[in-house]
Amino acid sequence: MSTSSSFRARYLRHWLAGLGMATTGLSWAQTSTDPLVTTPAQIRLGIEKVSLPGDEKMGLVGTTYLIDVGHGLSVGPAAYGAISGKRGGLFTLGGEVSWQRSLGGPLTLELGSYVGGGGGGVAPVGGGLMLRPHLDLLWDFGPFLAGLSASQVRFANGDINSRQLGLVWSAKTDFRYVAGNRIGERSEISGRSGMGFDRVQAVFGVYSPRASAKRNSGLPYEGKIGFVGARLERAISDHAYWGIEAAGAASGGVAGYAEYLGSVGTETTVWSNVLTVGARAAVGMGGGGDVSVGGGLLLKGGVYGTVRLTRELGLSLEGGVTRAPQGSFKALHAAASLNWILDDPTDVTAPLRNTRTEWVGGGERYNALRKDGSSRILQNVTLKANRFVSQNFYLTGQAHSGWGGGAGGYTVGLFGVGVQSHIWGPVHVGAEMLVGAAGGGGVESKGGAIMQPNAYLGVTVSPSMSVRVGAGRIKSLRQGGLEAPVAELSMAFTFGVAGHGYR
Known about the structure:
By secondary structure, the protein is mainly β.
């Protein structure tokens, strides 16, 4: 094993060990009669300017959701992406572990480390493993913290190794949940819980690039670009909301294109319990797949109508415009989405229930066909969110991003259904059927559309934590593309949140 590989392996082992101890601590955090647990959490946004070889500068934005697990330690998922410069399309996905300590008064010190996988934007990221240790000096303003961050951004087997100062802002919130072993017990859990989103949308859409839009290579776009994605939204008032969204190309010859945005919107009901109309605007990061986005800044606006199918489900149709102001990409877009209402804080008639939910993080590997005709092993970071609709069946949304195997910039987004059952004591089994989009990193995904059936075996190791090993197969929906068996190792955090569904 090379020195670089040994370093990466040691770094990942230490980081995962810390994450495992922290999340195990979270799962044992409550012993009260009421199973509802409330623990502090933070939603964080950071921005910094990273130096690349040749004195090139790239603006990097990071978003993190951190849950306090005690003794000043917090853990959670995180994502970073390019927002300025000329590397639009560089994204990484991973996890963060941090430790906070008050220095007296409102002054707070934080030490932390991020590990993730990704790449893109033709940046020199090697296999895609990104490490970001940091030290932050924060001022506590009450509802939020803000201050300076001193960090190192390093791609372990690439050419990026930069030290810089940045700005960080962190909003305080609560993570309310029921431990996995107490799901189904009566609780005063109501209103928002978990990460606090009120609805999730599975989105299927198409971009129609304008005549003036060109690829990074200078070639015109031929036909339309199909994309799939997801949105998470939370109400601000009866008529306003904010949210986050992510999507990736599934057709149109731009495999590897992805986007991550934050949005605000307004809507009003024009036919009670039947029809809602609204408008929204979003800003964030996009790129990859030979789409001309410049530094990565992406703007989107649209209008939509939603027909409510049941108490929990709705169907939306949207039309609008998407633009990359630093590049030439500009397109009309049309999208259809299936809306699932999770937690309606305004519905006082909803019964008190807790719905089983899982967050799953880990890694997978498979022998991936490359565009040069070769096949090589690659490794992905995997993040999954599962929400159960009955005792055994669940819906899942997943994001996978390359960190090893020379596939920096390879990204996968998947939706699907799963089934899970206990077979003996702490042992359970499950299976999933997934479809979505993949591309980037030189992997031959033939336009982006893929399917991935999986099966797994899990062992519960604490009230909310389990370890799982799985196997499956990833396959491009077009002939001649990616097709390989998949092996996976992951850790699952199971908890209950307020909802109208299965308890």
